[in-house]
């Protein structure tokens, strides 16, 4: 792991990133590897590829188009507090996201980012506070979301049915989402035989089925190669410009000047 991190730092410098940003990216990657127990190659790919993706995202594409109009509030999180035993994971958290806006949720490992998204998705119950969602919801969890023994096609049909799509509409929609992420699912291949990054593309495609009004994305790009990572952010801006309210858990601070709201959970965690 140390060798991979050193190579990442060298590559980031080679791409002209400053010491602060390089240090931050390396520290975030190290923390992720420690917590997940994954190998660096499985989590991030080769260091030069990952560094190139990070570098390309600095000052990269798509500022909001001029005259962009945001719509009504789609997600309203008010005063969310969550404790696990005696530990306060979230303390009085507020977040508002309108149609056509992107919010980034950042914070140290364990600061409650995934917990907040699970609460927003209705999968965990807060001790206090409310979540109001106006419209259809799509949720891309950090882990899971994909069943090992189903093909991509079967996932599209199954999840599509829950979103009111018939078989052919679900297949069409799923393949459309996959194509937008530069992935062409092969018929008959079980999800357990997909690479980590491709499973995440399936996960993300499923979250987008039925064109949700509110999209919750929990570090959905893990394992993406450079091209896929850039495609992912392009897609985010496209969905935003199409009126979707988007929440992205991210650890790459260089994206933050391009989002509408940044919710940093580090302080809440530290105060607990
Ligand atoms: N079901 C649970 N029971 C007990 N503790 C939990 C549960 N789910 C999460 N936690 C704890 O709550 C804290 C916040 O976890 P969470 O996964 O939300 O953090 P995170 O900010 O998403 O972390 P990471 O950056 O590592 O993904 C952690 O200390 C975690 O161990």
Automatic annotation (TrEMBL):
Keywords: ATP-binding, Nucleotide-binding. Residues 75-272 form the ABC transporter domain. GO terms for molecular function: ATP binding; ATP hydrolysis activity. Gene3D superfamilies: P-loop containing nucleotide triphosphate hydrolases (3.40.50.300). InterPro entries: AAA+_ATPase, ABC_transporter-like_ATP-bd, P-loop_NTPase. CDD domains: ABC_DR_subfamily_A (cd03230). The keyword Nucleotide-binding applies. The keyword Nucleotide-binding applies. This is ABC transporter domain-containing protein. It comes from Actinocatenispora sera.
């Amino acid at each position: 792991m140390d060798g991979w991190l050193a190579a990442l730092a060298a590559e980031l410098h080679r791409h002209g990133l400053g010491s602060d940003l390089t240090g931050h990216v390396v520290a975030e990657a190290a923390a992720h590897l420690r917590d997940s127990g994954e190998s660096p190659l499985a989590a991030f790919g080769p260091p030069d590829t990952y560094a190139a993706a990070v570098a390309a995202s600095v000052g990269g594409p798509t500022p909001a188009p001029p005259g962009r109009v945001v719509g009504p509030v789609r997600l309203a999180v008010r005063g969310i507090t969550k404790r696990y035993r005696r530990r306060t994971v979230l303390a009085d958290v507020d977040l508002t996201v309108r149609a056509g806006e992107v919010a980034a949720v950042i914070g140290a490992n364990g600061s409650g980012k995934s917990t907040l998204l699970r609460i927003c998705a209705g999968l965990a119950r807060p001790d206090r506070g409310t979540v109001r969602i106006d419209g259809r919801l799509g949720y891309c969890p950090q882990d899971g979301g994909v069943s090992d023994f189903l093909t991509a096609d079967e996932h599209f049909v199954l999840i599509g049915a829950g979103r009111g799509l018939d078989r052919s509409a679900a297949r069409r929609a799923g393949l459309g989402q996959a194509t937008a992420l530069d992935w062409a699912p092969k018929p008959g291949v079980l999800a357990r035989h997909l690479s980590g990054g491709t499973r995440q593309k399936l996960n993300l495609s499923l979250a987008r089925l039925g064109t949700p009004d509110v999209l919750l994305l929990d570090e959905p790009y893990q394992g993406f190669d450079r091209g896929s990572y850039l495609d992912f952010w392009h897609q985010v801006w496209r969905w935003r410009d199409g009126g979707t309210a988007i929440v992205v858990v991210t650890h790459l601070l260089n994206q933050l000047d391009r989002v509408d709201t940044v919710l940093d959970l580090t302080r809440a965690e530290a105060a607990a």
